[in-house]
Amino acid sequence: MSQLLSIIQRLQSMQKTEGNEEVPQRLFEVNGKTLCQVKYFPVTKTFEVEEYDKDSNKQKYQFDDIDITAIEIFDIVQEEKNPS
Prior knowledge:
Blueprint: H1 2-15, E1 25-30, E2 33-41, E3 46-52, E4 58-63, H2 66-81
Antiparallel strand pairs: 1-2, 2-3, 3-4
């Protein structure tokens, strides 16, 4: 639960940078491996999650809800920590 809370806090800090010219972005990593990059677009109030797989392929997802965004990031991180 604390990991999910820390993800939400990072996303909230991205939202607080509104008014800045640049699009806020954060990387989420496990053991030095970048799993995804998240961007926040203040104009549309949406998050974009760009997920990287082991072959460096990218998939992008867009969300307008911070909780759903956090759950998606949490799932990506958990998959890396606990592979099937």
